[in-house]
Design a protein that fits this description.
With 206 residues, the protein is an all-alpha fold. It is built from 11 helices and no strands.
Length: 206
């Protein structure tokens, strides 16, 4: 009888929507509901984290941290909103945190990633990535610091939209889906991000 009940519960859980599962976890601490959320979306969260970080180990750590946060902070999710976009936003935000924390000597820093996708300045930035003389090293540090300063002036949403669009090649529709907003909003955030970056980086005496 017990096995029959468990099988029925399992079927019921699998037929629930994401929002229904989240409510079961939020209101009743239903562990099976949370396990089903993990089963459904762990791969999506990992793929999103990897798209942003470009690093498998970091993507795995981000995924684990986001799921742990969802487990502990489910009360922060508002039932009137869709659940998966909330998870995706947590994942992108945490992934950006990882990019910010990377050491300057890491294989792919955020500044290097920006350089790769900015066609107008790519050759200039690339030349600065491996300076050979003390003068070149000092100049590279100056440019690096200014790029960091420019990036810091973007809002979190602008950073997210810019990275997904120009660094990872997401379409506007894909970004809108990930962030749970309209394509029009994505365009506005992207336009403002590009304006700020071009204004800041345009002042470099290159």
């Amino acid at each position: 009888m017990k096995n029959s009940d468990e099988n029925r519960d399992s079927r019921d859980i699998k037929s629930c929507s994401d929002e229904e599962l989240a409510l079961l976890w939020k209101e009743k601490s239903d562990v099976k509901a949370f396990e089903e959320i993990v089963r459904r979306h762990q791969g999506k969260l990992y793929a999103t984290a990897y798209q942003v970080t470009g690093n498998r180990e970091e993507a795995l750590e981000v995924t684990q941290e986001v799921l742990l946060k969802a487990y502990e902070k489910i009360h922060q999710w508002e039932p009137r909103g869709s659940f998966l976009p909330w998870l995706i936003r947590l994942t992108i935000n945490r992934s950006i945190d990882y990019l910010r924390k990377r050491k300057r000597t890491s294989h792919e820093t955020l500044e290097e990633n920006i350089a790769k996708v900015d066609e107008e300045n790519a050759s200039i930035y690339h030349a600065q990535m491996s300076p050979k003389t003390p003068v070149e090293m000092a100049r590279a540090k100056e440019i690096d610091d200014k790029i960091r300063e420019a990036l810091s002036k973007l809002s979190r949403t602008q950073q997210t939209v810019f990275i997904l669009r120009h660094y990872k090649g997401y379409s506007l529709n894909e970004i809108a889906e990930h962030l749970g907003c309209t394509v029009g909003s994505v365009k506005v955030h992207l336009f403002r991000a590009l304006q700020k970056l071009r204004k800041e980086l345009g002042n470099l005496d290159l």
